[in-house]
Amino acid sequence: MTLLSLAIGSLSAYALGRFRFRGKSFVLYLMLSMTIFPQIAILGALYTMFSGFHIVGPIDFPKLYDTPWALVFSYMIFTLPFTIWVLTSFMRALPGDLEEAAYVDGATPLQVFWKVLLPLIAPGLVTTGLLAFISAWNEYLYAVSFLQSPSHYTVPVAIVSFTGSSGNAFQFPWGTVMAATIVVTLPLIVATLVLQRRILAGLTAGAVKG
Question: What percent of the chain is helix, strand and coil (3-state, nearest 5)?
């Protein structure tokens, strides 16, 4: 989900940050407005859509409900607008001389994006991707609503399921829950430590001009 959000978000940010077209401001504010809606506001509509989605044809697609794809689509509703908004600011901050020089050398817009601009916004990609990953990693509402099979459980849902497996309704397995919490937090800590330089560069990019 994070990689898909970064791929779509970076291309969208390239169009919104480097090109001029009518309605660009409206699209940006639409992306921003989508990040302030509470998740529960569209939970019912998503549940109805996922439980009823079924395509019959040459390829018989199963329903999205109780599959990881349900979470991929639902998480992107919130991570993708955030990714586009943040990466657009990084794209706007890049000097136009680099882009013009690439065009003079015969590069296409896609080559300019891939070989010139994308490496320059690498700190922004790392920061945005990590924030999107943490948001999806800790999400509980959609996971518990769209997943029923234990084999598809995400980390928060799996930890909550420990409370019903102790055999005693009045005994909460604090030790098991705390141990699981520490284990699932380690990947986030390791990723932050490994990528801390790029994260710091991404958070401070554009703070100082000159």
Answer: 75, 0, 25
Q: Radius of gyration over alpha carbons of the chain, in Å? A: 21
For residues 195 and 193, give the distance between their C-alpha atoms in angstroms, rounded to a whole number. Answer: 6
Q: Which two tokens stand for residue 208?
A: 């100082």
Residue 80: name the closest of 154, 136, 22, 25 by CA: 136
CB atoms within 10 A of CB 62: 11
- Show me where the domains of the chain are located: 2-204
pTM: 0.79
Nearest-angstrom CA–CA distance, 38 and 57: 36
Calculate what percentage of the chain has a pLDDT beyond 90: 6
Question: Among residues of the chain, what percentage have pLDDT more than 70?
Answer: 85
CB count within 10 Å of CB 127 equals 23
* pLDDT band at residue 86 using 50, 70 and 90 as cut-offs: confident
Average pLDDT over residues 18-27: 86
> Class assignment of domain 2-204?
mainly alpha
* Nearest residue to 155 (alpha-carbon basis) of 184, 117, 182, 131: 184
